[in-house]
Amino acid sequence: MSDHTPPALDPAALSRRRFVTAACMIAQFMAAVESTIVATAMPTIVAQLGGFRYFSWVFTAYLLTQAVTIPIYGRLADIYGRKRVFYAGVGLFLISSIACGFAWGMLPLIVFRTLQGLGAGAIQPIASTIIGDIYTPAERARIQGLLSSVWGVAAIIGPVLGAFIVERLHWPLIFWINLPVGAMAVIMLAVFLKEPVHPRRRRVDYLGAALLMVGAGAPMVVLVQGQSLDAWVIVGLLALGAVTLAALVVLELRIPDPIVPFRLWRHRVIAIGNYGSFGIGIIMMGIAAYLTTYVQGVMGRSPTIAGLVVCTELGMWTFGSIGSGYLMLRTSYRSAGAVGGLLIVAGCAMLIAMTPDSGPLWAAAAASIIGIGMGFCVTVHVVSLQASVSWSERGAATSLNMFMRIIGQAIGAALFGGILNLGIARYLPDGAGAVDRLLDPATRHSLDPGVQAVLTQAIAGALHEVYLLGGLVAVVIFALTLFLPAGMSPTRPVRGAGPVGRAPVLGEADD
Questions:
Q1: Single pTM value for the model
Q2: How many whole angstroms separate alpha carbon 223 and alpha carbon 415?
Q3: Mean pLDDT, residues 475-496 taken together
Q4: What is the largest CA-CA distance in the chain?
Q5: Does the CA dihedral 382-386-389-393 come out positive or negative?
């Protein structure tokens, strides 16, 4: 690779790069807003289509297929180039979005959501990889804050837009609204991203891709839907996942162009980033899924207040990412990551210390601190690993990091859910049904004050145990940042830490 000094881009190239960046942000927004806008509209969709017992699979099918295809798309982008693979993924996503709007029942909707997830797996990792291609490490440190703002905006706009569509318009529009957004991103990349990919004779590892989808998908089904599955199904899926993943490892270590390059795990910076992203995924579920339960069930506040408390995490994530970029440029990856890790620990400590009388402002402050810390850490992970690999492995490294975060979210949801259920069963051996009444604002006030107090303390005690585990994970995340190479930063590569190169001119391969 070439030296670390970026080339001077002419005004036309700078203008093209801005449009490419805008296209990537639009694509990121489309992927980010999909979950929140659909979640808002689902009660209306169920009311019209029926099939409530399949409700959760509308989300599960999308999540599973998106997660297991992310590493595959990342590797394919390294082989065939970013644009072609991105077009294929977005095309499948948009066609499936059209089909979702025409779904005539819950089962067809689940099938179309599965196809939509298969396309969505290409959008986020390849958009992030393109940003890694066209900016130097120092520039990436700054641009990541801009990209992170997309998620905060999507978290706010998604529910509002979804509610407006189902109340004033027609619910299929929540899927069809993707069409102009996705088309705009594709057109802008087609016009402004010049990507001359060097011809390579490479064999696509189709068998490895299939093994990865089955090996990762089977245990994820257990994690996401374990409570509704029979014991023999759970055992069978776990066994299938274990055998398939073992076969995947054997295959990938023997072929020259694996779909999952396990050699990347031997890279210190990449391994730390992947383990850190896994831990962040776990804590994300502890905040998003269970802080609302505390604010609504324990503190007795409205669902709106609970939602606003959780939104502070995503909103402050943006500021953390921006702050991380500036700090990395002035210090090092290790210093910026350590600050983020300490903030996550501090926020989790506030959750551990939280009581029913603390109030929603305490919960919002804790979520905000954790959000800032996550913004720091995620930005450090992405910028450092993209700077540590060449063009031909950047897609695989970026997608693997995102994959680990999604796996962490799935495991966190299952782990925290199990701890919460066990805690409630211990505190209330015969009162689990009453907890549902406490969480429903319409029935909460009909409960006897004494019963309310007992239920509140039970949920608070069980969630306290959830946050204790979250605090332990936060400490591990902080400890991992201390193993990043000393002195390595977006402007200072370190010998043995991986290559750090100039920004290619709008997609020029740099290896």
A1: 0.81
A2: 8
A3: 82
A4: 73
A5: positive
The conformational region for residue 506 under phi > 0 = left, psi -120 to 50 = alpha, else beta, is left
Note the pLDDT of residue 2. 36
Worst-scoring range by mean pLDDT, 134-138, 195-199, 323-327?
195-199
Q: Which two tokens stand for residue 366?
A: 């804790």
Q: Which residues pair with 489 in a beta bridge?
A: 492
DSSP H or E run through 451 = helix 449-481
Q: What is the 3-state secondary structure (H, E, C) of 187-209?
A: HHHHHHCCCCCCCCCCCCCHHHH
CB-CB neighbours of 218 under 10 Å? 21
If DSSP codes are grouped into helix, strand and coil, which group holds residue 489?
strand
Per-residue pLDDT tens over the stretch 430-454:
655 556 666 666 666 666 777 777 7
Closest CA to 402 of 276, 266, 217: 276
Q: Which residues contact 110 (CB under 8 A, 6 or more apart)?
A: 54, 57, 58, 61
Q: Which of 350, 394, 354 is nearest to 369 (CA)?
A: 350
Q: How far apart are CA 281 and CA 272, in angstroms?
A: 14
- Please tell me which residue, 183 or 488, carries the higher pLDDT value: 183
Q: Is 250 exposed, middle or buried (0-12, 13-18, 19+ CB in 10 A)?
A: exposed
Q: Write the pLDDT tens digit of every residue in 45-82.
A: 877 877 766 766 787 788 778 888 888 888 888 888 88
Residue pair 384/494 in contact by the 8 Å Cβ criterion: no
User: Which token pair is 189?
Assistant: 């990349």
Three-class SS state of 504: coil
Does residue 497 register a pLDDT over 60? Answer: no
For residue 44, what are its two tokens? 């209306």
For residue 493, what pLDDT is reported?
A: 66
Closest of 122, 46, 97 to residue 395, by C-alpha: 122
Q: Which residues are bridge partners to 492 per DSSP?
A: 489
Three-class SS of residue 104?
A: coil
| Residue 500, both tokens | 């750090």
Domains of the chain: 12-194 (1.20.1250.20), 205-258 (no CATH), 264-496 (1.20.1250.20)
Give me the residue label for tokens 């599960």: 60
Q: Say if residues 323 and 375 touch (Cβ distance below 8 Å).
A: yes
- Do residues 352 and 392 lie in contact, with contact meaning Cβ atoms separated by under 8 Å? no
Task: Provide the sign of the torsion angle of the four alpha carbons 499, 500, 502, 506, taken in this order.
Answer: positive
CA distances from 162 to 25, 140, 177, 180 (A): 20, 32, 10, 16
SS3 492: strand
Q: Which tokens hold the place of 101?
A: 């709007």
Q: For 408-435, what is the mean pLDDT?
A: 74
pLDDT of amino acid 255: 81
- Alpha carbons 31 and 432: distance in angstroms, whole number: 36
Poorest-confidence range of 350-359, 435-444, 502-511? 502-511
Give the phi and the psi of residue 74 in degrees, each rounded to 5: -60, -45
